């Protein structure tokens, strides 16, 4: 395959590079044998590295890591293009179609432009697109591959949106106290408290939502604080 070396490349060049790397005969020995499953872990790692760049507000690193995430998208699209299932162009079209349909306040004259109104409309359109007619169907649609904390948060959010639960800080705090008391008893009796710990963490996620906090974010902030604390202990 012919390829022109340039000082600056565009998306078409990047697509060509991915195609060349995957060429069965002249491609890269590593790239040409990869599959969706073999690079699944890479996709997760690159995404977290991009998040790290965002959290640290490192613009140069962000540019690099966003590129790595894009490369993963292009590789997965290339796998399917080789099987003649879909192409990167199809991915782009699908995303554009979705954004147009889910933003009627921009593209279809929908007059509710409040944040809450826009989010509610987004969810309504999303459920209609996916044929979700019951709350149970929206709950089943939460990806099981989510990290447990994120999954709990999303599950509770959809349950609340469907009227199955209501966030109440006082009730959740009372539940947390009850779980802690049960755990204390279990530990004294030498019993297994794994199930109780699960309930405790799940209730903690509920408390975060009840107090208008994001469980992932508040835990992330605390992790950062504890990292510095442990490092200071190590210095001493």
Structural key phrases:
236 residues, mainly alpha, 11 helices, globular
Topology:
Elements (H helix, E strand, L loop, with lengths): L10 H11 L18 H16 L3 H24 L5 H15 L1 H4 L7 H15 L5 H6 L7 H14 L7 H20 L5 H17 L4 H21 L1
Structure report:
By secondary structure, this protein is an all-alpha fold. It is 69% helix and 0% strand. The chain has 11 helices and no strands. The longest helix has 24 residues, at 59-82. The chain is globular, with a radius of gyration of 23 Å. The termini are far apart. The model has no long low-confidence stretch (mean pLDDT 91).
The gist of it:
This protein has 236 residues and is mainly α. Helix content is 69%, strand content 0%.
Could you say which structural class the secondary elements and strand pairing correspond to? mainly alpha
Overall residue-averaged pLDDT value = 91
Overall shape:
globular
The helix tally amounts to 11
Main beta sheet, described? none
Strand content: under 5%
SSE sequence, one letter per element: HHHHHHHHHHH
DSSP strand tally: 0
Low-confidence stretches: none
Percent range for helical residues?
Answer: 55-70%
Rg for CA atoms: 23 Å
- What is the distance, rounded to the nearest whole angstrom, between the alpha carbons of the first and last residues? 59 Å
